[in-house]
Amino acid sequence: MKCDLFYELSVPPFGKRTEADVYRETLDELALADTLGFTTAWLVEHHFMPEYSHSSAPEMFLAAASQRTRRLRLGHGIVPLPYHQPVRVAERLATLDILSGGRAEFGFGRGFSPEEYATFGVDMAHSRSLTAEALAVVRSSFLPGPLNHTGKHFQYRNLSVVPRVVQDPHPPLWSAAVSPDSFELAAQLGVGALVGPFKPWFMVREDIRHYRRAWQKHHGDANTAPGQNRRVAMTVGLLCLEDGARARRLAKEPFEWFYRRLLGQTRPVLEKLYDSYEYYRRMGRFRGLMDHAVNLRLLDTLGMAVVGDPEHCLKRLQALKDEGVDHVLCAFGAGAMDSATVRESMELFAREVMPRLAGPAD
What are phi and psi of 41, to 5 degrees? Predict the structure, then answer.
């Protein structure tokens, strides 16, 4: 299992940090991660979500990070394609790939915020077709020669898209995977599945199994072809400290704040999503997430957060690895803790947990 990092660039009211503090200290954390052996740093793209996420221009932040790191890969997690001209997405991705020396990872999705759609003048009813067509344009930009495309939303003729990505054949592609259908689609497209931090583990486990079956259906037993990506990445809030009781005490306020804000932002999506899990709807198991106050114990029970000493963290993450999670995206401190504690946790995790999660193939 690979161990990555995940950031929303949160600015919680209790943190006593400014936006500039968060940006500066996060870049310092990524420089540290580069020396500790973490694989990839992922940043979301959100707009108009004060406190919860100030990551509205992640490609600029990642470009800055590319100059502070040498090995750490740099990932968009994700670019909401309906909001963007796909040619501009391709240009920015290629720029990041060049600046980082071929370390860019590209995650895409539809986005979920009605306010973002309204502000950017996009009809949410067109989100599926916009995403599919925009992805086709971005993929075409990787090919040699001019870009030609005639579709429902975009038309380009003999367009010279520059710069060009330096990875061959292109940066790894990942799709945001939320509903069972989106895991099916990711497998069909031959791209990796990025799982956000807002679903209980028992749901994600079933989704991973569905993704593997779908990959087999669409691609058979053949080795992964160039440009394909059959990995699954899952985000969890994480705090690993020598003293598990101290970890839980320090995590309570920031973790509960972050997950309340996260679930508040995504509640409309989640309610629709959960109704699609017929088996769990009959059991009523997932309703604890929506109908009870979010607390650290509930998050731990549902497998959405991992907080404790190294042995506890190893046990929880080993269970994810055993079920097919290839990358765990560690949101240290749920992105809402002071940087000194986050760095302490990163260093301990890299020393005591990460080497024991790496397998022979890693």
Answer: -110, 125
